[in-house]
Design brief:
This protein is of the alpha/beta class. It has 14 helices and 13 strands. Bound molecules: pyridoxal-5'-phosphate.
């Protein structure tokens, strides 16, 4: 059987043996009654790691972001966020569809930040013509910007701007753990300025399901109400939370391996004719590589690679996104580079026309 190397995302990771054991033996109760000891423990650990009073376990990163925004804002309120934000791009406009919140986008710079002046400019004056600006949302690491990290100093500056204007700062920290490991700072430090943060357990940390939202005790009470509103109140969810506890207590440090593999990939891809990649912008586990040949596009390259057992997602017709993860070894990285090299040397034969997806 062909060895499949799956670089589409870190969401493809499967639970570790330790997770499966923890799931099988988890103590459980009815979490809607607050009686699942394993969920309660996961939430306490997450709150502590993120430096917040409380946390709540939710089904997904998408649900975490939606609940957070609904819990801060009311219908007609405006959310300032990047034009490449996952919340804006890949979450079906849920905050508008469900919460009546309006997106006010400002350009994401290549490093995943939003210029402070652009944020400031987007904040509405108190005028009856205008929607009320209520929330600023950042993303760390930034998915569509290639896994770039936001620094604590930048995040603090956005937090200060938000709070000086009476706004809430939400961080979509689906991969905040990667940002923390890459910068050698704690997740709590990266979330210090935030009123809410969503972090995923089921991406690089390899848990099968789930995310956590952290914030003040009052905010998390409201978030619990909104989780129930959205149908996300789970019962004996300790079987899932047990894997999340293993994720938070055993899987953080090894993200450095994913980052090293990503850097090796970027260096190798940069040396292949017909491809462009910049290792200096690989902060974490995401590499964006561009196809520079005129006779072939990124979708065709991705299709041709898939027939050779290598899976990745085109970002658009020129660019591919490559995500290292728990199942990808240094030997796999070498195999990927050899396969790319061989493919780009000849005619790239692909069925063509395939769809490209998200994140
Ligand atoms: C930055 C970011 N935020 C949120 C999400 C949504 O997470 P989920 O797929 O668990 O809904 C993702 C998913 O890849 C993401 O990359």
């Amino acid at each position: 059987m062909m060895n499949i190397i799956d670089l589409r995302s870190d969401t493809v990771t499967k639970p570790t043996d330790a997770m499966r054991r923890a799931m099988a033996t988890a103590e459980v109760g009815d979490d809607v009654y607050g009686e699942d000891p394993t969920v309660n423990r996961l939430e306490a650990i997450a709150a502590e790691m993120l430096g917040k009073e409380a946390a709540v376990f939710v089904v997904s990163g998408t649900m975490g972001n939606l609940i957070s925004l609904l819990s801060h804002g009311a219908r007609g309120d405006e959310v300032i966020l990047g034009d490449n934000a996952h919340i804006f791009y890949y979450e079906q406009g849920g905050m508008s569809a469900v919460g009546g919140l309006m997106a006010h986008t400002v350009p994401n710079l290549a490093d995943g930040t939003l210029a402070l002046a652009a944020i400031e400019h987007a904040i509405r004056a108190d005028d009856e013509h205008f929607a009320r600006t209520r929330i600023i949302a950042l993303e760390n690491t930034h998915n569509r910007c290639g896994g770039r990290v936001l620094t604590p100093e930048y995040t603090d500056a956005v937090g200060a701007l938000a709070h000086a204007n009476g706004l809430m700062l939400h961080i979509d920290g689906a991969r905040l753990w990667n940002a923390a490991v890459a910068q050698g700072v704690s997740p709590a430090r990266l979330a210090a300025a935030a009123d809410s943060v969503t972090c995923c357990l089921s991406k690089g940390l390899a848990a099968p399901v789930g995310s956590v939202i952290a914030g003040s005790a009052a905010f998390i009470r409201q978030a619990r109400r909104n989780r129930k509103l959205l149908g996300g109140g789970m019962r004996q969810a300790g079987v899932l939370a047990a894997a999340g506890i293993v994720a938070l207590t055993e899987m953080l440090d090894r993200l450095a391996d994913d980052h090293a593999n990503a850097r090796t990939l970027a260096h190798g891809l940069a040396r292949i004719d017909g491809l462009a990649a910049d290792p200096t912008v690989v902060d974490t586990n995401i590499v964006v590589a561009a196809v520079t040949r005129d006779d072939v596009n990124a979708v065709q390259v991705a299709e041709a690679l898939s027939t050779r057992g290598i899976l990745l997602n085109p970002l658009d017709m020129q660019r591919m996104r490559i995500v290292t993860n728990y199942h990808v070894t240094p030997a796999d990285v070498e195999q990927v580079l050899d396969t790319f090299q061989e493919l780009m040397r000849g005619d790239v034969v692909a069925a063509g026309g395939g769809a490209y997806i998200y994140g």
